[in-house]
Amino acid sequence: MSAFKKRKTEHGSTKEAVLAPSTKSSRPKTGKVATPTNKKRAHAQVEIASEDSEEEEEDDEDEEFTFADLGVTESLCDACTSLGFKMPTPIQRESIPIALEGKDIIGLAETGSGKTAAFALPILQALLDKPQPMFGLVLAPTRELAYQISQQFEALGSLINVRCSVIVGGMDMVPQAISLAKKPHIVVATPGRLLDHLENTKGFSLRHLKYLVLDEADRLLDLDFGPILDKILQVLPRERRTMLFSATMNTKLNNLTRAALQQPVRVSVSDSNYQTVKNLMQRYVFIPQKFKDIYLVYLLNKFAGRMCIVFTRTIHEAARIAYLLRALGLSAIPLHGKLSQSARLGVLNKFKAGGKDILVSTDIAARGLDIPSVDLVLNFDLPSDSKTYVHRVGRTARAGKSGFAINIVTQYDIEVFQRIEHALGKKLEEYPTERDEVMVFGPRVNEAQRVAITELKNENDRQNGGGRKGAGGGGIGGGRGKKGGSRRDGMDQDEG
C-alpha cells in the first residue's frame, strides 16, 4: 500500500491591471527581482533548438537587471515602471535580448512568469523603430487570454500610442472588420476567427506582417487548432520574426515549430514539464466525499476577505457552488462556458475590480488569465491531468507575490492526486483542520444546499422556457458562407 493510501480517512485528523501598480514613481535602480526566488537568479538554459548538444550555463551571483540593461528603450522602460514592472522576470531577462536581436524564440516558462511582456516589449520596440500597420499578430487559444494580451500591449505601448484589435469568436464580425480596416499595429486573435476574416473580410491582409507570436502553443494544439494554424501560416510572409511560448513542451509541438520558426533559440526557465513557482504554498485536505461542501465553506471562512478562485470540473457544479455560497452570504460569482462572451468579460472585470471575492470557475479560468491579487486557489474538484493542475494553481503567486493553493481530496481522488504529486516531483503537505471547527458549519451548509438546488432548478426552467442561450455571439457567427464556420466560432470558447 502506498504512503498516501495509509493516510487516515477520518476527516478530522488532519486553510491588467496587468500587474499591481508600484508604490514608487521612479524606476528603481536596485531591488529584489520579482521571481520565484529573490536571492538567487533562476537558472535559465538557452540553446539553439536544432542542436543536439546543450551547453550548461553558470548562474550569475546575485546579479540584478533592469529593463534598460536588457536593451529596452527609455519610453518602454517608463511604461514598465508605471505598471509596476520593477525588475525583469527570468523569462523576460533571457528572451528579450534575443528577440531584440531579431531571432526566433521558443520560450518555455512556468505560468505566471511574465511571458506576455517578454514578447510584447521587443515587438513594441521594433514597432517604435519602424512603425507600420499590421505589424504584429498574436495568436491565443481562448478569447479571455486574447483580451488580456491586448490590454497588456496597450498598457505597455500607451506612451507610443499603439493601436490593437482583438479578433475572437463569439462576437459580431462586422465591428471586427471595421476595426481591422482602421489598420491597427497589433492584432490579437484566436485562430478560428482570424481565418474567417482572412477568407471573408475584403481588404484584410497580413502580407506585410513583421512579428508572429504563438502564445500558449500547447493549448492551441490541444484545442485542435492545428489545421487552422497551417492555413494561417500559408498566407503569412516568410520574412518575419516568430516567437512561440508555452508552459510545457511535447512532441505535438515539434511539427508546429518546424513549420513556423526559423533557426529558433530555445529559452527555458523551467527544469520540469510541471513546474510551479517557489512562492506558492500547496496543501491538501483529505476528507470523505460527503463533507466536501462543508470543508469548502470552512476553508473560505479561514481565508475570509481574500481573493479566491474555486475550481470545479463541470459547469453544473460551478453554478451550484456559486448559489450555495451566495445563500451563505458570501460574495461569489460563477464563470463558465455557458455564459455569453460579454457576460464572461463582465464577470472577470467584476472579480478583478474587487466587486466579488470568490470566483467559482471551470477550467475556463485555469490558463493564461492574469488576475492580480488572487490569494487562494481552491481545487474543489481535482483536475484530471497534471498540466491543468499547474495552470490552475498558477492563477495565484504571480509576478513574485506569494499565494496559497489547497486541494480537496476525497477517497475517490487518491489516484489522480498521486499522479499530480508525481508530476510535481514532491509530496504536498496536509492543511491542518479541526473536526469540531469544521462541523460547526454543517447545519448552515445543509440549508444552503437546498437553496442552491432550488435556484438551479429555477435557472434550468428559465433556460428551457424560451430565449436563446448566450454562449454563441450576435451577428455573423463563423465564416460567411463557409462550411464549418460555426464550429470555428466556438473553438476558442475554453471550457473545463
From TrEMBL:
Ranges of compositional bias, category Acidic residues: 49-63
Residue ranges of every copy of the DEAD-box RNA helicase Q domain listed in the record: 65-93
Annotated ranges, domain Helicase ATP-binding: 96-267
Major localisation: nucleus
GO BP term, pick one: ribosome biogenesis
Record's keyword terms, sorted: ATP-binding, Helicase, Hydrolase, Nucleotide-binding, Nucleus, Ribosome biogenesis, RNA-binding
Compositional bias of kind Basic and acidic residues: 486-496
UniProt region (Disordered), positions on chain: 1-63, 454-496
GO cellular component: cytosol; nucleus
SMART domains: DEXDc, HELICc
Helicase C-terminal domain residues: 279-439
Extent of Gly residues compositional bias: 464-479
Compartmental location: Nucleus
GO molecular function, one term: RNA helicase activity
Q motif, short sequence motif: residues: 65-93
Family: Belongs to the DEAD box helicase family. DDX47/RRP3 subfamily.
Protein known as: DEAD-domain-containing protein
Organism encoding this protein: Dissoconium aciculare CBS 342.82
